[in-house]
Amino acid sequence: MKHPAAVILLCIAALTRTISASCHEGISPSAPVYSLIERICPGSSGNFIILIDTAASGSFFELSQSPDGRISISADCPVSAAAGLNWYLKYYAGIHLSWNCMRAELPTELPPVPTPERRTTRSQYRYYLNYCTFSYTMAFWDWARWEQELDWMALHGTNLCLAAVGSDALWINVLHRLGYSGADAADFIAGPAFQAWWLMNNLEGWGGPNPPSWYIRNTELQKKILARMAELGIEPVLPGYSGMLPHDAAERLGLNVADPGLWQGYHRPAFLQPEDDNFQKIADIYYEESEKLFGNARFYSMDPFHEGGRTAGVDLEAAGTVHLRMSRRLHPAGHPRVHLLRTSVPEHLPGFFLV
């Protein structure tokens, strides 16, 4: 019987900030919302007034009718304004946007908003996606499909989202710095449809190797995804480092690793023991290479020991302490790095806040 999964959020203190502050400097916070309107309702952005108050406290949107007949949407950030747009389309214009249809045809005269309507949420973070989705559904998405999904996120108020595209390219660079050849590094990385289970430490190499063009393609795609997230005010959750290494790391690198065993008949990657003096060094290499490719993030996600990985010989409390120490290392913007750890072994992080 599987243990129930525990989702563990580390280092929560000092996180409060306005989501829209992540938008690119020099760009009006309302501009991304007008662009979104044009993508889903071509030619209709002029029928709306988008007002973003970045100094407002709490997440909200308010719909009202301007004197000239346009629909006014006031909000604290672009994501909230997009959610307000979706509310208007659904409950005033009778238009339902879905994954199957993200286009709307608005009438020349928009349905009115007779009295102002304000909606709020107490949820500071509205999180979206897990690793499995990236292989079940998104493995071969191009920018056009991702652009549509990012619009869908904003329309539904998502402001925190797993962003795992390009993790394979990151690992190529990490392993290169650890002394692996390009071919050996590529043998470690799973094919596109299996990378979720590779990132969750279930298998390695299955479905690969991938051609070099795949890593170039994914790197550029991830940069577009992250840029659009920043415009809309959606914070990315990048894959973090939890100790995963190729199965031959002990022989090749002389590291102290544990063997997590098999998963559905597949050999799991090795798990670097937290007491190994090289753990922090390799983690630093990982985050340095992540920053080079994709910039900084406040949130990082990982899923060690997924679905029953063997923990024999692993000091779980020490592993938790290492992750806590890494999470407390300051983000360049002055905010602590936050590790979102999903594990079926709750004792991995004894005493930490569970959500």
Give a short overview:
The chain has 355 residues and is α/β, with parallel strands linked by helices. It has helices spanning 31-40, 78-91, 131-136, 143-155, 167-177, 182-188, 195-199, 212-232, 249-253, 279-294, 316-327; strands spanning 6-9, 48-52, 59-65, 71-75, 117-121, 127-128, 160-162, 235-239, 244-245, 257-258, 262-263, 266-267, 270-272, 299-302, 338-343. Strand 3 (59-65) and strand 4 form a beta hairpin.
How does this structure look, described?
This protein is of the alpha/beta class. It has 2 domains: 234 residues, Glycosidases (TIM Barrel), CATH 3.20.20.80; 103 residues, Chitobiase/beta-hexosaminidase domain 2-like (Chitobiase, domain 2, 2-Layer Sandwich). The strands form 4 sheets. A 6-stranded mixed beta sheet has the order 1-15-14-8-7-6, covered by helices on one side. Strands 2-4-3-5 form a 4-stranded mixed beta sheet, with helices on one face. A 3-stranded antiparallel beta sheet has the order 9-13-10, with no helix packed on it. A hairpin with a 5-residue loop joins strand 3 and strand 4. Helix 1 packs parallel to helix 2 and helix 4 runs parallel beside helix 8. It is elongated and about 75 Å long.
Instruction: Write the CATH homologous superfamily of the largest domain.
Output: Glycosidases
Q: In angstroms, what separates the terminal alpha carbons? A: 22 Å
User: Which structural class do the helices and strands define?
Assistant: alpha/beta
* Average pLDDT figure: 85
Fraction in helix = 25-40%
β content, as a range? 15-25%
- Total number of domains: 2
Which regions contain 5 or more consecutive residues with pLDDT less than 50? 1-24, 350-355
Secondary structure tally: strands: 15
CATH topology name of the largest domain: TIM Barrel
Main β-sheet description: 6 strands, mixed
List SSEs in N-to-C order.
EHEEEHEEHHEHHHHEEHEEEEHEHE
Backbone CA Rg: 22 Å
